[in-house]
Amino acid sequence: MTTDTKFTVEGKLSDNERLKSQSNFLRGTIEQDLQDDLTGGFTADNFQLIRFHGMYQQDDRDIRAERAKQKLEPLHNVMLRARLPGGIIAPDQWLAIDKFAKEHTLYGSIRLTTRQTFQFHGVLKPKIKQMHQMLNKVGIDSIATAGDVNRNVLCTSNPVESAVHQQAYEWAKKISEHLLPKTRAYAEIWLDGEKVETTENEPILGNNYLPRKFKTTVVIPPHNDIDVHANDLNFVAISEDGELVGFNVLVGGGLAMTHGDESTFPRKADDFGFITLDKTLDVAAAVVSTQRDWGNRVNRKNAKTKYTLERVGVENFKAEVEKRAEITFGPSRPYTFTDRGDRFGWVEGVDGKYHLTLFIENGRILDYPGKTLKTGCAEIAKIHKGDFRLTANQNLIVAGVAPDQKEAIEVLARIHGLISDGVSNQRLDSMACVALPTCPLAMAEAERYLPDAVTEIETLLAKHGIADKSIIFRVTGCPNGCGRAMLAEVGLVGKGPGKYNLHLGGDREGTRIPKMYKENISEQEILDHLDQLIGRWSSEALDNESFGDFLIRAKVVAPVINSAKDFYV
Ligand code: SRM
Ligand code: SF4
Asked: Which residues contact residue 336 at a Cβ distance below 8 angstroms, ignoring those fewer than 6 apart?
């Protein structure tokens, strides 16, 4: 693979570049920090370096002020994010993580994320090594689920529904492995692996790793459940006669922005064209390495692939990928996306096995009064012979159930409140990021606000006589956009306590970015606007016209066509 650096950004490198280069391939002095019991936290560069090992240092923001008053340091702990390509986890693995969450985390929950994996929140320093060793014992790791690397690779859920799903999932796994860091730092530090001389080399990621986080998916049309436009690199599965034959490659999606900084914006991915299967890993490596060499290492706010494409031009980036991968992209093959949601309840697969999708509000698996979700999942895991699949909508699929086990699993799911009968379409189509109390970047509530916000929207839909309809509604506690509000029909972006920017006009397929309609408004003001607009939708919509499409046709908001130019105007 050649290295052309003509678009490298010159200037003083960001401090993250220094810390990566001085980290001895991501080791830093994490081991010394682990021995230090004077503080529950990690010091200096290690605070950032543990992210490359899948952990973030956090503290409970609800009790931060109280602890400060008592002159105590914040209750430092880590959040761990596992690597689960395609979101697949086996029942014995589930039981192990269930036990660890219960016995060793401050919150006791398993949190399903918007990227098909799970997080533990609240792991104190003395338990961290034990956690990694437990995960390793059951075949799970958390390598590269955070930091400036390729993250957990997503794949459309329900992969066992057809041969194409199975093949696509295998590719998601292969891409994940191919793009992993090669350093042995993780094994040395957490698994007491043998120390080796540092003669390491990172042939794809580079010895200074990537300029910024990087996200990859494999998606199987017509379902866009993994939301391609949130991702740097997407492989859109193209099949012929039920066989996967190749991928259309989409590059440069991403949703984050910074309030008040118009050099940042959400952006849709561009279609580079079609490749055959044998080119997949080469193209993945070429896109990553082009972003590695051309991405902005001076300003982290403009470092993601989406900004590189805007700066160097899509055609230049594409030509460089072709050169590095020694391929020519073919014309894109036709495909359409028709939806993004999960299909709840039972579905029969082509192999005669069944899959049960469970609705998990906010992805938070915990025992609640009258709804013992966590116990329920564990009880299912004890008898289940297939696997579990985590969806990118924070839900859980009990997959590969033999017909003779179906009833027993359904009984358990019902006993523990895991079946979504009676849950409105609106609730099923709503999502929020974690935000408070664990996320240090949260400006407003998201996960804790979502259930009540949905109840209010349900009331508005009923008031206007359309209770069975739904709006893709997403709340995100700050403009980083972890709840993917920038691909919703109605997206709330946290601005301050109880205050949000209201974005309108995304579509149901996830191919249109919603425009800001009102800035920094209260929860009540949001509901007042929605009341009026849902009223109009109910009386003025064309047949089956979605809320987002109606808002565009009625000129309530203008469509975002080229976000670099028209997102803020
Ligand atoms: Fe995220 C940072 C949670 C998906 C964009 N995200 C964070 C941190 C780690 C806060 C931090 O840096 O200290 C949050 C931890 C909260 C907590 O207490 O758990 C956090 N992000 C999440 C999760 C758990 C939200 C959820 O409710 O599920 C998702 C975990 C995904 C995973 O398993 O890997 C999550 N984050 C996303 C997505 C959605 C997606 O990828 O589909 C996005 C928008 C897409 C994108 O990347 O453009 C997203 N998270 C960010 C950003 C902004 C990145 C940027 O381009 O500027 C940050 C902040 C950063 O990186 O500086 C961030
Ligand atoms: Fe935290 Fe902001 Fe991400 Fe929500 S969107 S989890 S508040 S970083």
From this structure: 221, 222
